Input
Amino acid sequence: MKKTPLLIVEDDETQARILAEYLAHKGFEVDKAYSVAEAKKHLAQKPFDIILLDWRLPDQDGLTFLTELKREKPLTQVIMLTAFATVERAVEAIKRGAYHYLTKPVNLEELLLIIEKALKELRLQKEVELLKATVAELSEPQITDIVAESAGMKEVLRLAAKVAQTDATVLILGESGTGKEVLANLIYRASPRAKKPFLKINCAAIPEGLLESELFGHERGAFTGADRAKPGLFELAHEGTLFLDEIGDLPLPLQAKLLRVLQDGTIRRVGGLKEIRVDVRILAATNKDLEEMVNKGAFREDLFWRLNVFTLKIPPLRERREDIWPLARFFLQKFAHKHHKTIRDFSREALEALLSYHFPGNVRELENIIERAVILAENEVITKEDLPFLMQEPRGEPSSLLENLPLPEAVAYLEKQRIKKAMKEAHGVKTRAAEMLGISERVLRYKLAKYGLEEP
Ligand SMILES: Nc1ncnc2c1ncn2[C@@H]1O[C@H](COP(=O)(O)OP(=O)(O)OP(=O)(O)O)[C@@H](O)[C@H]1O
Ligand SMILES: [Mg+2]
Output
């Protein structure tokens, strides 16, 4: 592995030697300079990631040199060393861009820890600079609402752009919150049907009893309450596009009906006999493993093959970490605008926390985290404290209150609290919250609506 270049600028030869020997032993490529002039010669020859800089040097004071250094090589991490420690000095050094400030005699182990930390941050900083450059180069003004910087996402978009030109059924797969709906929107907008209707239905959110009539419509008197005939989404989407979201939650009887539309392009309203021709392009999405559902008999194999003509799989965010930073910036701008706040950036710690988080709730979780951070932020920079997933959560059940309530209300109260807590901990990701609560997502959605806990 390539050694990290490190420069020691220190006029006390013994000090310089002790530091140099220790750090060389720890695997650094060490150079020594006894004055600012010598240091400049070294710097002209090669870049250094780390510089240990003495406060007092024979030809110039270290602080002035520090200012110069940070101006010319902002990515160099400078650690100041001094024999006379004062708070003012430390503050002054940090203000001028020093990474850290240590008093002599230097504790070598402490120094090593600080250097390692500085290097870690430097790497992050470099990655960010690189990403920023790429983003600036590649950002396409016409597609402003989908961020795709990782190779994985770019490939998905490339394929999406191609299939958009056709009438082929597209099956969009990916974990919850990865952006399946965003992609469906994009395909629609890029398709020749862009001027025709685009209708969406979430098969998981609608009670099974209503779903059939939503999709296929019904005739008057088809069931109690059907006092007039109503066209379904397939008819309404005629010549356009229909997005069947959460297709994995489509009950088996409806799967059979859907198969029929896909095969011969006709539907029959509930309670009706007439065959109605529809010309609809289908986009479908699910976070379920359809193949496994087929194996278990929960999803029709013939329908699966009909849907699986052209599949786009969106990778989870943790497998395309290059997107985290551009997405975070994108959401920062979006929510700063929405909440009328002037926020320019993330602090280094905040960014580091974001980049090292695993985002089980994918892009939606990131989006929720940033919106909360924007709301919480006290100044122009989002700090680690603004990121709720790192915050402590104060809790305590008001048990006496519960004991005094009538049982149904106590149960409702408890249920509501638990759901709120789970939703908070899951950052609004319903599948995750449902999992935490040990209930199905469908039940969770129902309860959220029942208790008015739905986000707006
Ligand atoms: N690439 C992206 N660029 C910008 N925003 C994105 C991107 N991907 C997702 N989002 C945003 O993240 C949120 C979740 O995306 P979306 O609803 O499309 O996910 P999903 O895969 O359909 O999730 P679910 O399975 O839970 O329905 C949305 O607010 C969306 O705008
Ligand atoms: Mg979705």
Residues 134-144, 391-401 have pLDDT under 50 and may be disordered. Residues 318-390 form a domain with the Helicase, Ruva Protein; domain 3 fold (CATH 1.10.8.60).
